[in-house]
């Protein structure tokens, strides 16, 4: 779907940048090199989001081993593949090939064991994995999986020439590939030509951040350069965000309604209490997780 739109909702009180965060280089799975942009220390501040990893490399040694079988419980993973090919298989019987511009949305719920294995031996692999928490009442829901090829993702171009992919939520009258009632996640990939502006209404109480992966932007006068995550302040009056591209830029705009529930994480398991984590470890050990 492609449409252009005349209306940029007026933002009277744009959000400001509360702070900038630089990701930390790390590795996960069977040695995949990545940058953890949203780490555990930001889980409360950016509730309902638990993690954002950025991966990107020309070097197959950085990604080739992928993520062999591993478990999850209690949240959702959203993988957005900018470039490259990765095959997903899970214990609920889902299988999919994620490639160039596609999104995979997986609800781990009460438990999945899955693998994410690159299907390329050379070339660039670049993308993001976001973890979205589930409310306590849904943590033990049945697992769910869906993948969307790039052409299936809702897309629009503004009059200013900003190309937007709406992975989740709603923007400029376009509803995203996935919506979620409890956390109302908004997940936009925005490609802005130099000088262009993009405005997005946001409820004041929703936590929101922008991750710049190419170029440089400004938000309410604060410059944000590539590989920086800008946490947007939750001023009670603020009614949205305005992003101005200083250069050609590519950014993720992510926001959601906080759950305000306790977070207990042990690696790939995110529950509400320690007791539930012990239960999860027992379930996994005894083969009851998935
Ligand atoms: Fe995983």
Characterize the overall form: globular
Total number of distinct structural domains: 1
Q: Percent helix among the residues?
A: under 10%
CATH architecture: Sandwich
Biggest sheet layout: 8 strands, mixed
Content of β-strand: over 45%
The helix-and-strand class reads mainly beta
Strand order of the largest sheet: 1-14-15-18-25-20-23-2
| Distance between the ends | 36 Å
In angstroms, what is the radius of gyration?
18 Å
Layout of helices and strands:
Blueprint: E1 4-5, E2 17-22, E3 24-28, E4 32-38, E5 49-57, E6 67-72, E7 75-83, E8 85-90, E9 95-99, E10 103-107, E11 112-118, E12 125-133, E13 144-148, E14 155-158, E15 163-168, E16 170-171, E17 174-175, E18 186-192, E19 197-201, E20 207-214, E21 216-219, E22 222-225, E23 228-232, E24 240-245, E25 249-256, E26 264-266, E27 269-271, H1 274-285
Parallel strand pairs: 1-14
Antiparallel strand pairs: 2-23, 3-4, 4-5, 5-12, 6-11, 7-10, 7-12, 8-9, 8-11, 10-13, 14-15, 15-18, 16-17, 18-25, 19-24, 20-23, 20-25, 21-22, 21-24, 26-27
The protein binds fe (iii) ion.
Give me some keywords for this one.
8-stranded mixed sheet, Jelly Rolls, 7-stranded antiparallel sheet, binds fe (iii) ion, mainly beta
Describe this structure in words.
The chain is 4% helix and 51% strand. The chain is mostly beta strands. It has one domain (17-285): Jelly Rolls, CATH 2.60.120.10. Strands 1-14-15-18-25-20-23-2 form an 8-stranded mixed beta sheet, with no helix packed on it. Strands 3-4-5-12-7-10-13 form a 7-stranded antiparallel beta sheet, with no helix packed on it. Strands 6-11-8-9 form a 4-stranded antiparallel beta sheet, with no helix packed on it. The model is unreliable at 1-8 (pLDDT under 50). Bound molecules: fe (iii) ion.
């Amino acid at each position: 779907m492609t449409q252009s739109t005349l209306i940029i909702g007026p933002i009277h009180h744009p959000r400001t940048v509360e702070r900038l965060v630089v990701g930390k280089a790390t590795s996960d799975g069977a040695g995949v090199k990545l940058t953890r942009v949203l780490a555990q220390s930001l889980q409360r501040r950016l509730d309902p989001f638990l993690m954002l990893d950025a991966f990107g490399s020309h070097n197959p040694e950085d990604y080739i081993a992928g993520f062999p079988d591993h478990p999850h419980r209690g949240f959702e993973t959203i993988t957005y593949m900018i470039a490259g090919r990765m095959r997903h298989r899970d214990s609920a019987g889902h299988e999919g090939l994620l490639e160039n511009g596609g999104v995979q949305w997986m609800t781990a719920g009460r438990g999945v064991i899955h693998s994410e294995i690159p299907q390329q031996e050379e070339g660039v692999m670049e993308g993001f994995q976001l973890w979205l928490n589930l409310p306590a009442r849904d943590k033990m829901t049945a697992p769910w999986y869906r993948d969307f090829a790039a052409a299936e993702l809702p897309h629009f171009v503004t009059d200013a020439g900003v190309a937007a992919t709406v992975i989740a939520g709603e923007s400029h009258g376009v509803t995203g590939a996935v919506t979620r009632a409890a956390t109302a996640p908004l997940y936009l990939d925005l490609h802005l030509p130099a000088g262009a502006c993009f405005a997005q209404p946001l409820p004041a109480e929703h936590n929101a951040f922008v991750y710049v992966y190419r170029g440089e932007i400004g938000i309410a006068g604060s410059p944000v350069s590539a590989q920086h995550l800008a946490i947007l302040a939750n001023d009670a009056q603020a009614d949205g965000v305005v992003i101005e591209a200083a250069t050609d830029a590519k950014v993720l705009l992510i926001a959601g309604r906080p759950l305000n529930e306790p977070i207990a994480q042990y690696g790939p398991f995110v529950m509400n209490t320690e007791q539930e984590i012990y239960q999860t470890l027992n379930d996994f050990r005894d083969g009851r997780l998935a």
